[in-house]
Design a protein that fits this description.
Layout (H helix, E strand, L loop, with lengths): L6 H11 L65 E6 L28 E6 L3 E9 L11 H43 E2 L4 E2 L8 E3 H8 L7 H4 L3 H17 L21 E6 H11 L15 E3 L11 H4 L2 E4 L5 E4 L2 E7 L3 E15 L4 E14 L5 E5 L2
Parallel strand pairs: 6-14, 7-8
Antiparallel strand pairs: 1-2, 3-13, 4-5, 7-11, 9-10, 11-14, 12-13
Length: 389
C-alpha cells in the first residue's frame, strides 16, 4: 500500500481556515485516490516488502434506476396484436314535431337513423433486445466467497435493468414528442414557405410569448429572457390553468382531427419542462400568500423533451427535432409544456421477457433481454402544446 506524508499540506490547511494566510494552490494529486483499473506493482506491505496486499472490502455500484417519464403506460394483452379504438360521433338534433301537429298530417316514425361510428386501428410495434453473457466458473477466482460473486452478478443484472429502463423512458418521450410535432404542424404550418411559423399562435399550439407581447407586455420580451421574467411567468401560469377548464368542455378545437372531444380533469395529463415549473415556484409562488390561486394545474415534470445537450441550456432542453409519423421534419425550441387526454398518447401491450441460451463447450450462458411495445398517437384526441417563440 502506498502511504504519503502530508504534514506540510495539513499545516497549510490549518493556516488557511484560521485566516492566517491567503488561499494557495494545494497539490491534491497524492491525497485523493481516484482509483485504478488495474492494481500496480507497488501494492506490497511496508514491513518485509514481499507480502501482497489483499482486498479488504468489495462494494458494487448497484444503484437502481427507476426512470422519471410521464405516465402514459397502458394495459397489455396476450393474444392478438391490433389495438382497435371505436368512437361514436355526436348525432344532430331534429325537429320535435310533437308541438307542431297539423290536422290530417302523417308522421313517419319508421325511418332508420344510423349512428355514425368510426374505428381506428393501431398495429405498429417497436422492439429491441439487450444481450449479456454470464459466467460463473471463470470469475470465481476474483472473489473471496459466494456472497461477493452473487453481488457481482446482481450488479450486472441491475446494469441491464438500467439499460432497459433508459431506453423505455426515451421511447415514451418520443411518443409525446411526435404528438407535439403533429400538433404544431396542424396549427402553425405555413404552406407558402413550407415551414412552421413560430411567431404566431394557434388554438392548440399556444405561443405564450406572442400572446404576452401582444396583449400584456409593457416591454417586448425575447424567448431567452422570458423564462426568468416574473410577469411573463405569471401570465403563462394563468393561460395554462385556463386550458384545464377549456378542455373539459366538449369542443373540436383541441385535436388535430377536429372531433368532438372533452377531457375531464381525471383524464387530463399535464407535463411541464422543469425549467418552467421551477421558475413558477421560485419567481411566482415564493412571494405570495394564497399560493393556491397562482399554482399550476397538477402536473408531472421532465428535465428535457429530447435531450440535455452538453450544458443543459434552455435552448436544448426545450427543443425537439424530429421527423414525424407524417414524414415532416419539425425543429422547435422553447416548448414549456403539453396537456393531453389520457387517450391521446399511449404505450400499449408492453412485453418484457428474457430468453436464455447455454454454451456447453465454453461454459457460459447468454440472456437476451427483450422488449416489445406499441407506441401510439391518436390525433382525434385532445392535445395542447405551450411554447415560446
Amino acid at each position: 500500500m502506498n502511504v504519503e506524508q502530508v504534514y506540510q499540506l495539513v499545516n497549510t490547511t490549518v493556516s488557511e481556515i484560521m485566516g492566517e494566510s491567503v488561499i494557495v494552490q494545494e497539490d491534491l494529486s497524492n491525497i485523493v485516490d481516484v482509483g485504478r483499473e488495474i492494481i500496480s506493482t507497488n501494492n506490497l506491505d511496508n514491513y518485509v516488502k514481499k507480502l501482497v496486499n489483499h482486498i479488504g472490502k468489495v462494494i458494487f455500484d448497484d444503484r437502481v434506476y427507476k426512470g422519471s417519464v410521464p405516465s402514459v403506460l397502458r394495459d397489455s394483452w396476450e393474444y392478438g396484436s391490433i389495438l382497435e379504438k371505436i368512437t361514436a360521433d355526436i348525432p344532430e338534433a331534429k325537429e320535435n314535431e310533437s308541438w307542431n301537429l297539423v290536422d290530417g298530417q302523417t308522421y313517419n316514425q319508421d325511418v332508420f337513423h344510423q349512428p355514425q361510428v368510426s374505428a381506428k386501428f393501431f398495429n405498429n410495434r417497436v422492439t429491441f433486445e439487450v444481450p449479456v453473457s454470464f459466467t460463473e466458473l471463470q470469475v470465481k477466482e476474483s472473489f473471496s466467497n459466494r456472497e461477493q460473486l452473487n453481488g457481482f452478478l446482481s450488479m450486472i443484472f441491475n446494469a441491464v435493468e438500467k439499460a432497459m429502463t433508459i431506453r423505455l423512458d426515451n421511447l415514451v418521450m418520443r411518443a409525446i414528442n411526435n404528438m407535439t410535432a403533429e400538433t404544431l404542424l396542424d396549427d402553425l404550418f405555413d404552406e407558402a414557405n413550407n415551414t412552421l411559423d413560430l411567431t404566431k399562435t394557434g388554438t392548440k399550439a399556444i405561443n405564450l410569448l406572442a400572446l404576452y407581447n401582444a396583449n400584456y407586455a409593457e416591454e417586448q420580451l425575447e424567448p431567452g429572457s422570458a423564462i426568468l421574467n416574473p410577469d411573463f411567468i405569471r401570465f403563462a401560469s394563468y393561460v395554462i390553468s385556463l386550458y384545464k377548464d377549456r378542455m373539459s368542455k366538449i369542443s373540436t378545437l383541441f385535436n388535430v382531427g377536429r372531433k368532438e372531444r372533452f377531457t375531464p380533469a381525471s383524464d387530463l395529463t399535464t407535463v411541464l419542462l422543469s425549467d418552467f415549473s421551477s421558475a413558477v415556484d421560485v419567481f411566482l409562488q415564493s412571494d405570495v400568500f394564497n399560493k393556491e390561486l397562482t399554482s399550476l394545474p397538477k402536473h408531472e415534470t421532465v428535465p428535457y423533451w429530447q435531450g440535455s445537450g452538453t450544458e443543459y441550456a434552455f435552448y436544448d432542453v426545450s427543443k425537439i427535432h424530429v421527423k414525424t409519423s407524417s414524414k415532416k421534419e419539425v425543429e422547435v425550441s422553447g416548448i414549456l409544456g403539453v396537456m393531453f387526454d389520457v387517450n391521446a398518447v399511449g404505450v400499449a401491450n408492453l412485453d418484457r421477457r428474457v430468453t436464455t441460451h447455454y454454451n456447453a463447450k465454453a461454459e457460459f450462458y447468454t440472456n437476451y433481454y427483450k422488449m416489445d411495445a406499441g407506441y401510439y398517437n391518436d390525433l382525434n384526441e385532445n392535445f395542447v402544446v405551450f411554447f415560446i417563440g
